Amino acid sequence: MANPARGETTLEIGGVTHTLCLTLGALAEIEALFEGGVRLDARNLVTVLAVLLRGGGSNLTEAELRAAPLDPLAATAAISTCFETSL
C-alpha cells in the first residue's frame, strides 16, 4: 500500500501493483539523467519510471518495463503524482 505522506503512489504493470517513490537517491539519479538538458521522451519516461519504481522497492528493469503491458497515460499520471506528493 502506497503512503502518500512519503511521496509514494502506485501503478499497475502487468496485473501487479507496484509502488513508486521519489527517494533522495532516485532524485539524484533523475537529476544526473537530465543534467545535459535531455528532453523527456518516451525512452526517458521509462527510465524515470524505472528509477521511481526502484525507489519504491521494485526490481523491474527498464527492459522489463519496455516489454510489459504498460498504459502510458497511467504511467505518466503515476510519475506526476509521485513528484506532486513529494513536494
Describe this structure in words.
There is one protein chain. With 87 residues, the chain is of the alpha+beta class. The protein has one domain. It is 51% helix and 14% strand. The chain has helices at 24-33, 42-55, 62-67, 72-85, and strands spanning 8-13, 16-21. The chain has a two-stranded antiparallel sheet. Strand 1 and strand 2 (16-21) form a beta hairpin. Helix 1 (24-33) packs antiparallel against helix 2 and helix 2 (42-55) crosses helix 4 (72-85).
Task: List its traits.
51% helix; alpha+beta; globular; 87 residues; two-stranded antiparallel ribbon
Record the SSE blueprint.
Layout: E1 8-13, E2 16-21, H1 24-33, H2 42-55, H3 62-67, H4 72-85
Helix pairs in contact: 1-2, 2-4
Q: Which runs of at least 5 residues are low in confidence (pLDDT < 50)? A: none
Number of helices: 4
Ends distance: 20 Å
| Main sheet characteristics | 2 strands, antiparallel
**Structure classification:** alpha+beta
- The overall pLDDT, averaged over residues, is 90
Instruction: Work out the number of β strands.
Output: 2
The outline comes out as globular
User: What's the oligomerization state?
Assistant: single chain
Percentage beta strand: 5-15%
For the largest sheet, list the strands in their spatial order. Answer: 1-2
The whole-angstrom Rg is: 12 Å
Counting structural domains, the number is 1
Give helix % range: 40-55%
What pattern of helices and strands is seen along the backbone? EEHHHH
